[in-house]
Amino acid sequence: MSGGPESVQEVATPHGPARVQLHSADGTAGGLLLGHGAGGGVDAPDLVAATGAARQAGLHVALVEQPYRVAGRRAPAPAAQLDASWLAVVTAVRSGQLAGLPLVTGGRSSGARVACRTAAAAGAVAVLCLAFPVQPPGKPDKHRRAELDGVTVPVLVVQGERDLFGRPESAAGRSVVLLPGDHSLKADPAGVARAVGGWLRLVTGEHR
To answer: Which residue of 24, 65, 116, 149 pairs with 19 in a disulfide if CB–CB is 3.0 to 4.6 A?
Structure first.
């Protein structure tokens, strides 16, 4: 399997075009849809590691750039716009590259929040959260735990031990893996790959 995407396409959404990179796998275990962080792109180290692990596990991976990033902006769009654009991409990949496959959704930081909020509407069989931002640094009263708690399918959270955005707790149906490093999750990409690959094999195996 090569390192680059097999295809790159734009998908129309209610808030402008999103961009989708498809990385195919030698298998049909499922599809993994991943979103980026608020100010970053799909080339973040943890997303790259997760993509490689998913492909090794037989999942096709679609990396999604939100419309605000495609338009060249760094400041993220409001949550409602992010969610609507994400679900438009879900519809597109379900009728195209990932048709008929069990779909795992996820992302890093802001992208993980989007995947949690939309898991039910997307029909996701599981959600992967890389560096879930529990609360803004120094503002524990502004937590986002309800977004995680609202997911009713299996969840994996991969979090840096020194993440200033907090640390989610394990719960029924939710596993938390702590790795060396901070919110960037770039200190241990091999650890990210191991955690993601093993979990994906488990959750997609239940749908075969």
So the answer is: 65
Q: For residue 174, what pLDDT is reported?
A: 98
Read off the amino acid at residue 178. L
CA 199 to chain centroid, in Å, comes to: 14
pLDDT for residue 5: 80
pTM over 0.90: yes
94 Rama sector, left if φ>0, alpha if ψ -120 to 50, beta otherwise = alpha
The structure tokens 């997911």 sit at: 151
CA atoms within 13 A on the CB side of 87: 14
Q: What is the DSSP letter of 160?
A: E
pLDDT at 3: 61
E strand segments, the chain? 7-11, 18-23, 30-35, 59-65, 103-108, 126-130, 155-160, 174-179
What is the per-residue pLDDT for 141? 82
- Judged by DSSP in three states, 12 sits in coil
Question: What pLDDT is recorded for position 142?
Answer: 84
Low-confidence ranges of the chain (pLDDT < 70): 1-3, 208
- The DSSP bridge partners found for residue 21 are 8, 63
Amino acid at 64: V
